[in-house]
Amino acid sequence: MGGYKDPHTLSAVKAVTWRILATTTTILIVFAFTGKLALSAGVGAVEVTVKLILYYLHERFWLSVVRGRLFSRQSSL
User: Fold this and answer.
1) CA–CA separation, 18 vs 7, rounded Å?
2) Residue 67: pLDDT band by 50, 70, 90 thresholds?
3) Distance in angstroms (rounded) separating the CA atoms of residues 20 and 36
4) Is 1 within a domain?
5) Does any domain span residue 43?
């Protein structure tokens, strides 16, 4: 038995709901420290944008690392 695999749609929904939860947490933390809703929402907007960009760059970096290892293994065979 191969085990259970999440469908791609479920993985996408889980990723989006996680991002909503994480950004909402950031907004609430900033609001707790400052008491300013506009500032909190602004920080949340910046946070979600920056983290999406960083996640993309992180993924691209690791893809290049994996490819580099695969190519070096093949060339040594």
Assistant:
1) 17
2) confident
3) 20
4) no
5) yes
Which pLDDT score, from 0 to 100, does residue 17 have? 94
What is the residue whose two structure tokens read 């500032």? 39
Structural domain of residue 63, as residue ranges?
8-75
Buried b (16+ CB within 10 A) or exposed e, 15-37: eeeeeeeebeebbeebbeeeeee
Count of structural domains within the chain: 1
Domain-located, residue 56: yes
Q: How far apart are CA 26 and CA 43, in angstroms?
A: 8
- 0.90 cut: is pTM over it? no
C-beta separation of 23 from 47 below 8 A: yes
